[in-house]
From TrEMBL:
GO MF terms, alphabetically ordered: phosphoribosylglycinamide formyltransferase activity
Keywords: Purine biosynthesis, Transferase
GO biological process: 'de novo' IMP biosynthetic process
Binding of (6R)-10-formyltetrahydrofolate, residues: K67, M92, R93, L94, V95, N109
Organism: Paraliobacillus quinghaiensis
Matches recorded under PANTHER family: PHOSPHORIBOSYLGLYCINAMIDE FORMYLTRANSFERASE
InterPro entries documented for this protein: Formyl_transf_N (IPR002376), Formyl_transf_N_sf (IPR036477), GART (IPR004607), GART_AS (IPR001555)
GO cellular component, one term: cytosol
Top-level taxon in the UniProt lineage: Bacteria
Name of this protein: Phosphoribosylglycinamide formyltransferase
Signal peptide: none
Gene that this sequence comes from: purN
Site label Raises pKa of active site His, positions: D147
Amino acid sequence: MRNNKIAIFASGTGSNYDAIIAAIQAGELDCEVALLVSDKPAAKVIEKAKQNQTPTFVFDPRQYPDKAAFEQEIVEQLQVNNIEWIVLAGYMRLVGPTLLHEYEGRILNIHPSLLPAFPGLDAIGQAARAGVKITGVTIHYVDEGMDTGTIIAQEALPVTNEMTEVDLQKQIQRIEHKLYPQTIQQVILHTNRKGN
Ligand code: GRF
């Protein structure tokens, strides 16, 4: 039986972290954020985690010889904290084989475009510059590629001529904050039902 403990990996402002915590508090998401992992010691999300009493593991990748070394330490932290699922929310790194092997099929990511369009950095800017009339948000399983894993959920957003990039960003975030908690809940329920 799974315990539904998740670790959020984040290195930004943490608005998705906030949305997940709010959904748990509202009884809409049946899991516990038992660890926040961040590779940016100055990230705002770390303050938020401390205020919420979420345990944190913050590391500086430059202090390790390579990705395998810091991922091995992350795996140890995840195991100590009994983590079942990894939820990436603004962790701006490719996940390597060490983590992928330990958490195969149990790592989710959110990306601010309709994948496979606009993978990688600055997806909202990429979409704005391309002049697309529809963009959106994707939630997918993580594999070794850049935003290439199996898609779980998507929500589209029409782009009007009047919208600035800032408007676009706000509307994308609004979708993210609703879609991510809902999708995490669905994935966890579905996996528990299968008895995995
Ligand atoms: C989100 O836009 C997410 O799609 C991307 O990184 C951003 C994180 O934002 N992967 P926040 O730190 O949760 O506000």
